[in-house]
Amino acid sequence: MAAVPARTSPPDPAAQAAAQAAADAVSRTRRTRALWVALALVLVWGANFSVQKAVFNAMSPGGFLFVRYLIMPVAAALLLFWRHGLHWPRLPREDLWALLRLGVVGHVLHVGLVTYGIHWSTPFSSALILACGPVFTLLILRWYGLEHLTRGQVAGVAVACLGVLVFLSDKLTGGQWRAGGGDLVLLIAAAFFSYYTVMAKPQIERHGSVTVMAYATLMASAPLVALNLPAGLGVELTAISPAIWMGTFYSVLISAFLGWMVWGWVNAVRGVARTAPLMYLMPPVAGLVAWALTGERYTAVKLAGAALTLAGVALAQFASASPRDPVREAPAPVD
């Protein structure tokens, strides 16, 4: 006797609607939580400029780089152990060479220049100049023929350049050559980070962001420790106060290492387009923290230049005709 097939009841529209509503509520909750995490991270990054100034004054920029790149490879190795155990990804030789180049550009050049630039400049200036990174990314993409500049993007680049000139004018006309030179060094560092961003994209698509970050960090650490060995040996580590050590670990582990991973999670939850504008809050946060903690003061010319710069960067970054603009895909700074 043939078995009678079981009858299946049609889907209940009310139950489906309830399930969808519950899923939407969970998604909204995750996005809201990610927004608050992103705002907290912007506060961490904004405050880090003043923290780094204090650390650099205590142990010198070279001494800080020496200590930083004794800590960073340990953190990178632990991250790989956590993700892959003892079986780390085996990469082709050409990709290993590409990651070595990433380490040189992103760490040796970018982080090295940023460290000295912040030391010579001021926290607010440093945050503002480094916020120009998307403009350099756009120009590099245009140079390689990967991006066509719209009129809005060209206008944004012009406004950002004008803003930087206005922002630097009071330092240069006032003879503040050390601070002005620090800002110029930071501009070069921002360009290197943009180049790092463009170079990293195909590797991240192939191997994932964690593997790329960890391998580039490991490969860059040895040359950075060697380059800064004299400065590191010149620091009396036992004379460094607990507050400076706390600032060092805050800058290296919380702001740079953990901050990078948290920002990646925020982008995954909220989307890059929704998250990227929050980066423009970092210079104001850095300025407020520096005003409160270090007594940094701002003239009307400097504030006008800062406003022009951020407006130009925003216009250049978001005026693309492409719905998936590559310039929006920049990861958080490695510094």
Please give a structural write-up.
Helices cover 78% and strands 0% of the residues. Helix 1 packs antiparallel against helix 2, helix 3 packs across helix 8 and helix 4 packs across helix 7. The chain has one domain. The protein is an all-alpha fold.
Class derived from helix and strand content: mainly alpha
Strand content: under 5%
* Quaternary form: single chain
The H/E string reads HHHHHHHHHHHHH
Give the number of DSSP strands. 0
Measured as a percent range, the helix fraction is over 70%
How many distinct folded domains?
Answer: 1
Poorly predicted ranges? none
Integer average pLDDT:
86
The radius of gyration computed from the alpha-carbon positions, rounded to a whole number of angstroms, is 23 Å
- Distance linking N and C termini: 74 Å
The global form is globular
Please summarize the sheet with the most strands: none
How many helical stretches? 13
Keywords summarizing the entry:
single chain; mainly alpha; 335 residues; 13 helices; 78% helix
Care to give the gist of this entry?
The chain has 335 residues and is mainly α. Helices cover 78% and strands 0% of the residues.
Summarize the helices and strands and which ones pair or pack.
Layout: H1 13-59, H2 61-84, H3 93-120, H4 123-130, H5 133-143, H6 151-173, H7 177-207, H8 209-227, H9 229-233, H10 242-270, H11 272-275, H12 282-293, H13 300-318
Helix pairs in contact: 1-2, 1-4, 1-10, 1-12, 2-3, 2-8, 2-10, 3-7, 3-8, 4-7, 4-12, 5-7, 6-13, 7-8
